[in-house]
């Protein structure tokens, strides 16, 4: 298995310029119809977050040129000229712009922490 992994990493270095990312043209909150895409040479994966009219939480995923990373851009949405400000947060490993991994594990840790502390409090008050 180690040799295989070695071969894969060598292959990966050769094709390094074409990063694979998740792509979602437009999502609201975390609901995003996501596909996989190959970026062009020199592009990074990004997660874009923006707010329209201060309430609508908009999200996009995809590939972007490095100079557009962490830059606030205004985007015009629909024909009624709803304008929102979006910032693209970039990363440079395959599929690193996944939308769900981190929040779910964070949520699980929080739930575990709450349950554990609740259980400990229950146990200490119950034994008195």
From TrEMBL:
It comes from the Eukaryota. It is a lipid-anchor; GPI-anchor. Residues 19-98 form the UPAR/Ly6 domain. One of its GO terms (biological process) is sperm-egg recognition. GO terms for cellular component: plasma membrane; side of membrane. The keyword Nucleotide-binding does not apply. It is found in: Cell membrane. Keywords: Cell membrane, Disulfide bond, Glycoprotein, GPI-anchor, Lipoprotein, Membrane, Signal. InterPro entries: LY6_UPA_recep-like, Snake_toxin-like_sf, SPACA4/Bouncer. SUPFAM superfamilies: Snake toxin-like (SSF57302). PANTHER family: SPERM ACROSOME MEMBRANE-ASSOCIATED PROTEIN 4. Belongs to the SPACA4/bouncer family. This is UPAR/Ly6 domain-containing protein. The lineage of its organism: Eukaryota, Metazoa, Chordata, Craniata, Vertebrata.
């Amino acid at each position: 298995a180690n040799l295989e992994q070695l071969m894969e990493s060598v292959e990966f270095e050769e094709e390094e310029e074409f990063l694979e990312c998740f792509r979602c043209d437009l999502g609201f909150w975390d609901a995003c119809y996501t596909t996989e895409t190959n970026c062009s040479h020199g592009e990074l994966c990004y997660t874009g977050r923006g707010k329209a009219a201060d309430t609508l939480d908009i999200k996009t995923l995809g590939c972007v040129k490095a100079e557009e990373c962490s830059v606030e851009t205004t985007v015009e949405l629909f024909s009624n000229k709803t304008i929102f400000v979006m910032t693209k947060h970039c990363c440079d490993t395959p599929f690193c712009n996944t939308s769900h991994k981190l929040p779910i594990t964070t949520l699980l840790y929080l739930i575990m922490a709450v349950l554990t502390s609740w259980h400990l409090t229950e146990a200490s008050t119950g034994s008195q």
